[in-house]
Amino acid sequence: MAQGPLATSGVDTGLARHLLSQMMLIRRFEEKAAENYALGKIGGFLHLYIGQEAVAVGAASVLRPDDYAISHYREHGHCLAKGSDPRRVMAELFGRRDGLSHGKGGSMHLFDKSTNFLGGHAIVGAHLPLAAGVAFGIKYEGRDRVIVCYFGEGAVPQGEFHESMNLAALWRLPVIYICENNRYAMGTPVERALAEPNIWRFAQTYGIPGEAVDGMDVLAVREVVGRAVARARRDREPTLVEARTYRFRGHSMRDPAGAIYRTRDEVEREKLRDPIVLFRQRCLTEGTLTEADVKAIEKDVNDLVDEAVAFADASAEPPLEWLLTDIYKEA
Amino acid sequence: MGKLNMVKALNLALLQEMERDEDVLVIGEDVGVDGGVFRVTEDLHRKFGSKRVIDSPLAEAAIVGTAVGMALYGLKPVCEIQFSGFAFQGFHQLENHAARYRQRSQGRFHCQMVVRMPYGGGVRALEHHSESEEQFYAHIPGIKMVIPSGPRNARALLVSAIRDPDPVVFFEAKALYHAAREDVPDEIEALPIGRAHVDRQGGDLTLVAYGAMLRVAREAAQILHDEDGVESEVIDLLTISPLDRETLAASVNKTGRAVIVHEALRSFGPGAEIAASIMEGAFLSLEAPIRRVAAYDVPFVGFAREKANVPDVGRVVAAARETLAF
Fold this sequence. Notes:
The complex is a heterodimer. Chain A is α/β, with parallel strands linked by helices. Chain A contains 11 helices and 7 strands. In chain A, the strands form 2 sheets. Chain A has a 5-stranded parallel sheet. The interface between A and B is large, with 37 and 40 residues.
């Protein structure tokens, strides 16, 4: 397991500000989403990423705008980190016409062509072959782009995980598979689901690099994914990264406490490793950021999210006639 | 112009589309070096190499799922599944991803891709090598479901399928691969997807068929003409979904009677939707209940009883006579 750097050395103020503000944006965005879910403005299910922000932000920080990202259903953070407009993401959660998918995708299906974000996908493990296909396209055209594919440890028992790892390795595709191991597939702990709970080791089976990383450490994630991205760009070598993380909230809003399958003590203990608190503390201790910087970031983030909620709230419902559109290309 | 069987005609469509557009790729099990289980992709690997004619591992979900990713990137993959009975391992990728990307992303992403597969009985093979599962695909919004009935329309429809901006499932009747040769023009020809063909004109009875069942319907029409003096109109659907409801209604408004023939199972099969469509479009013209001649509602039986399960000319003629006598 790669040890993350313990200090922010090598990180300039600009980068520190970027990483912290991105993580805080995602956190604030989702807290507000939860509030609006409780108000009934968001229907159905809502899967919060709170606690895992360092993974999306660390990984996205080493991507170029023309690189691709594809994700699962807990993807608000991945979508925001790839650069989507928070207003349009919130509007999509609200099911409104100004949402990223004009209100037809919803929380689990965010797509943004302008950032090459290829969607959230609700069926666990099913999007992994898509990432291989996109990577094939990149290689086919001889470009130096990459795709990162996020999924949870719940996807690892699925056949498509293994089919995709095999293809990526066999065809040497520029894809980085990032498994966010938050230890519970809804309520099933990884030890009860996987014969080999050290997920990064599956990479060895397929003969590609595999690394585990502390997913609560944004700089460690950045370093490990950065190496993987460099390999993919330069050598078209895929990587499996296992980011060990934890979700502070339940599986979805229907499981708010998450207290049946894990203890409150465990959740409280993990919250002591809050990636935002840890990184902020580190930056302050080392003087990369000042208290005033942090306050300014906080204010900016709060303003952005308030604006996103106001934007979503003001956006109209999709017109009824959209019910029947975009099934086939319109003649 | 050459006299080609369906295998050669399909091969010609792939060859010419790959020459015309370098984004068109072929992917599947043994499609490359080996040329495909039914030889449809023969010589393509020699002409275009491993980069564009891709031998995949035996993993249907990966074949279809990877093709979805290729299509999202902007390529135009043509997948081959060795037999339609094997396709359910990849079914999820079609119904959940290929079919829905356009709608979920409000048209920002779409999947221009084709999944070809041999289907149907008549070759004395067991269950998964003889089944007809078109109803599963026809039921999915966002997917187009095409089944040609002969070499020339197979070639022209495959060209259209490859160029279609939406995902197309393309069934090829194994029984037709080597059954007949037709004149197929050298220059590229395309037939519109979603349009049925009136194969034989008549005013007394409409016979609706597609794929390998077209020749069964044709033969039945000839017997009805010779022995009963009945003039059947034979409709070759060519596209199962989207269904050409206008052609169906126009024919039955003329004839007042319809018999639908397919190899898929009877209950909840394509015939149910076709019958409902005729009811909606030609109710006041109907003189008799619409009949369906289909495979029985059982898993596909072994070759000893295959002939009893797949519709044949005798069953179609009998159903037609009952309809005419009503």
